[in-house]
Design goal:
This protein is of the alpha+beta class. The chain has a single domain, classed as RNA polymerase II/Efflux pump adaptor protein, barrel-sandwich hybrid domain (OB fold (Dihydrolipoamide Acetyltransferase, E2P), Beta Barrel), CATH 2.40.50.100. A four-stranded antiparallel sheet has the order 1-8-6-3, with no helix packed on it. The chain is elongated and about 100 Å long. The protein starts with a strand and ends in a 32-residue tail after the last helix. This is Lipoyl-binding domain-containing protein. InterPro entries: 2-oxoA_DH_lipoyl-BS, 2-oxoacid_dehydrogenase, Biotin_lipoyl, Single_hybrid_motif. Keywords: Lipoyl. Pfam families: Biotin_lipoyl (PF00364).
Length: 142
């Protein structure tokens, strides 16, 4: 059974990463937790490890490509296995994209602007702060 290698969330506000360099090629044997590729983001540069041991069956992003968090970067499986079982077909990808576009268009059309917030109540003017008292200087009488 093949396993998909996805781009993990590398930071709280990181939404995408650039594939800097592949450390393995298709057909290479990899061990669990062995580095597969290097990814650069605006906040961090890191290596993505292999989640399982096996053979690298497919690489879905080239170097310098930008991938979204959660995107499938590669497929790892047994040496005799093909990556076709884990990879979605182009027809299903196009159908998913069309459904997502239609759903987002419908959502945008139904969204009504929120009413303006009520004005804040007026604050009472602040009382002036008391002035510091001046201390009279004592003069030493001699």
């Amino acid at each position: 059974m093949s396993t998909e290698v996805t781009l993990p969330a590398l930071g709280e506000s990181v939404t995408e990463g650039t594939i800097s360099r592949w450390l393995k090629a298709v057909g290479d044997t990899v061990e669990a937790d062995e580095p597969l590729l290097e990814v650069s983001t605006d906040k961090v540069d890191t290596e993505i490890p292999s989640p399982v041991a096996g053979t690298l069956l497919e690489i879905r992003f080239n170097e310098d490509d930008v991938a979204e968090v959660g995107a499938v970067l590669a497929v790892i499986g047994d040496a005799g296995e093909s990556a076709g079982g884990a990879a979605p077909t182009e027809v299903s990808i196009e159908a998913e994209e069309a459904a997502a576009t239609a759903a987002s268009d419908a959502t945008e059309a139904e969204v009504e602007p929120a009413p303006a917030p009520a004005p804040l109540p007026r604050r009472r003017p602040r009382r002036p702060l008391p002035r510091p008292r001046r201390r009279a200087r004592r003069r030493a009488s001699r």
